[in-house]
Amino acid sequence: MSLLVDIEKKVGSFCLKTKFNTKEQWLGILGASGSGKSMTLKCIAGIETPDKGRIVLNDRILFDSEKGINLPARLRKAGYLFQNYALFPHMTARENILVSVEKGRQKEVLEREAARFQIETLLDQRPAELSGGQQQRVALARIFASEPEVLMLDEPFSALDEYMKEKIFREMMDTLQSFQGEVLMVSHSRNELYEFGEKLLIIQNGLTILEGEKKALFEQPVYVEAAILTGCKNISRIRKVSDCIVEAIDWGITLDVGEHYQENIHTHIGIRAHDIERVITREKNIRNKMSGMVKKIYERPFEIDMLIENGKSEHILWCKVPKGSIKNANLEEDKPITICLPPEKLIYLRER
């Protein structure tokens, strides 16, 4: 099983230029709204036509601009789960599932997919009579009835509240374990995609900026743009002071970076909010210690977010600590605080 995508498509002033290759992997596609994530899926499905490039699924050419090949959507074996599920409102669940199944196979396919998605009791109901989770299962059953070789999920949880999102995500992940083909999921939620699969593709403004194993990309996202999309709020320009020491220009502090910093490559440094540590002892041998002022405190259900300034820069550092931890004891706005930026938690970045 494999999928190769190398395409370009221009829509007005927007230009999509994306390239990736999967082999029996679940691929998450991360990007902001309007970055080209859904357009990429629609090009694979045959809903949109690229201006040039190639799409190859399991050695079958779906699209090749140079060879003049552009298979219609019905022949691509590409299942597409739309954000709103796109069920036909006037049809029952049964009719929706069987909409593209040959008559001679309908009984067999319906029994198989209804059992797979546990919707046997819902078959005579219309979409308006179903919950969001039930609608999603019917939509997935319709896709599986067409026996796709690639399954594409386009923001499948965006319309759900947090409780239902978590519940349906778990149900869908369990169900998809039996699928033998390629699976792609598009989302702007880094948490969903981190749980979804091992491989991640990051798109910005129509361009693929990074592709690789998710853990590696979150630990060292390479580019400033990728760091922002993976949730890093603290990023500063840097300049070398001496061996192993840099100035974080936007934070107004110097940092011990050890041997990780490469002057001819790295232009920025970052640290995730939860990696900043509050110093509550008088120990002197703490690296990258900084004194500052708590500018703002945001209390969350299970954690506390702080905005910290050090008086040397207009930029503010975001810090996140667990609720109930000794490290958030006696926190008050407009009160001094000491923090440290552990060298092993620093992220080394460059601009594209």
From TrEMBL:
Whose protein is this, by species? Velocimicrobium porci
Which GO molecular function annotations are given, in alphabetical order? Answer: ATP binding; ATP hydrolysis activity
Q: What is this protein called?
A: ATP-binding cassette domain-containing protein
Any Pfam family = ABC_tran
Q: Does the keyword Nucleotide-binding apply?
A: yes
Residue ranges of domain ABC transporter in the record: 2-230
Highest taxon listed in the record's lineage: Bacteria
**Where is the signal peptide, in residue numbers?**
none
Q: Which UniProt keywords apply?
A: ATP-binding, Nucleotide-binding
